[in-house]
Design brief:
single chain; mainly alpha; Helix Hairpins; 2 helices; about 0% strand
């Protein structure tokens, strides 16, 4: 009778041990499934992050090309404006030279035909002064245009620098988030393993 009672107790203890092992196996299995899900989620995030970086790289490259093309066009406009201004100045100088020559000739003839040539000299002088005024306005306008073009070029250069900085920041943030996710996974798996060991 005593042996039967002892055998029954041992059997009950064995059943308890089996139940504990079953619970441990169930917890370990659930932890493994959770770990697999987390790994899959991190893989998906990593894929999306890489895709995002590729898209940003593509868009940045296209934007940089457009900005460079705009800057080049502005530089060509400035060079063309300077060339036109130089040619205009040369033409103005030639016209003034002709006018001065005409005035000198009129002065020589003025003594002979004072009345008629005096009037012509007055007309030529008026034309010369008007030409100077118009040319002065033209030079001023070209200078203002050049300043505006250079200002736009500076703004585009600033936009390019800002875009470079923002792209660098976004790329660093994506790398940091990815590293944090991987570190969190490692910590969680280590916690699951520690919990399983404590339960067993």
């Amino acid at each position: 009778m005593s042996d039967l009672i002892n055998a029954q107790k041992e059997f009950e203890e064995l059943i308890d041990q089996l139940e504990k092992l079953k619970n441990v196996n169930q917890i370990t299995s659930e932890n493994a499934e959770n770990a697999k899900k987390i790994v899959q989620q991190i893989k998906e995030y990593s894929t999306k992050a890489d895709s995002f970086l590729d898209q940003v790289n593509k868009e940045y490259g296209e934007t940089e090309q457009r900005v460079n093309a705009a800057i080049k066009a502005l530089e060509e406009s400035i060079e063309k404006s300077e060339k036109v201004n130089s040619e205009t100045q040369s033409l103005v100088t030639q016209k003034f030279s002709v006018l001065d020559s005409g005035l000198n000739e009129l002065k020589d003839l003025e003594g002979k035909t004072q009345k008629n040539f005096s009037k012509m000299a007055e007309i030529l002088t008026t034309l010369k002064e008007e030409d100077k005024r118009i040319q002065g306005n033209q030079v001023k306008t070209e200078k203002n245009l050049k300043n505006k073009i250079e200002g736009i070029a500076d703004q585009l250069s600033g936009f390019k620098a800002t875009t470079n900085d923002e792209f660098s920041i976004h790329r660093k943030e994506a790398k940091v988030i990815k590293a944090i996710m991987i570190l969190s996974l490692v910590i969680m798996i280590a916690g699951f393993i520690t919990m399983s060991l404590l339960i067993s």
